[in-house]
């Protein structure tokens, strides 16, 4: 327990969310997917509420662990926390929506198109060169280099990995037969330590880290939040949806995809990878706020979550690609927030 608390304090000190002075300070940790949105909304939240927050990141696994230990006022996980360790009073609020981007370092101006089967082949190891016929078939307007593909994945327990591998299994089950997992290696088809994969595929922890490594590695490919690609000069692929269209990872495409989802009373979403919405981006995901309904800071937590749910937060920096929560999902979030306290 002492080690977990120490780690949490260290993470808070290294948070990418800068804190201004305020009358009440909330704390949280978890999903790195949520960090860019929280960064963009922190000033508006402080101005409107007079309160502030620190957010330690650390990955969805860290968020779930902190929630289990009762650490923090809120934590975020990009996949549902269904483990037996979850406190009975902790609820899920799917309150942050955005796309996962498939990002590449090719030094080309053209936007790469990729079908789900092609993405599964690249990450799974059946496609190892950029001029493979499958990639060429997705991109007939320009010439691709005859270079080996360097795959970079998340080594930590990551909801981004969980959603990414769920997408691969959901849309290309023949090439990616295992169910999705927050542990990329657990979902990987075959033996990730096989000789053929040594040097072809490498891992680092965190979205910022996989993006930074890809930015330094020519002919590489990885997956993370869209804004990390821009920071290191990576290209962002369009992904083919079930309607047959190559869709960019933007707010409208994410909204179209999530709008086809279903959810249960717990707030858990089930994505419909087969939706034929024309502009659906099939790698749209949500990040769940994990909140203890028995928190002693109920009013402050509810105020914070209502600010995150407000469209002004998602629209604070449109270039990040986050989507405002609308419709039935918005109504669900309002009901979940009302349970706090």
Question: What can you tell me about this protein's structure?
Answer:
This protein has 341 residues and is α/β, with parallel strands linked by helices. The protein has helices at residues 2-13, 35-49, 60-68, 116-124, 133-138, 159-171, 184-187, 207-216, 226-232, 251-258, 298-309, 311-314, 327-338, and strands at 25-30, 52-58, 74-77, 90-104, 113-114, 150-154, 201-204, 220-225, 235-236, 238-240, 246-247, 262-263, 269-270, 284-292. Strands 1, 2, 3, 4, 6, 7, 8, 9 and 14 form a 9-stranded mixed beta sheet that branches. Strands 5-10-11 form a 3-stranded mixed beta sheet. The protein is globular.
State the main characteristics.
disordered N terminus, alpha/beta, 14 strands, 13 helices, three-stranded mixed sheet, 341 residues, 35% helix, nine-stranded mixed sheet
Quick description:
The protein has 341 residues and is of the alpha/beta class.
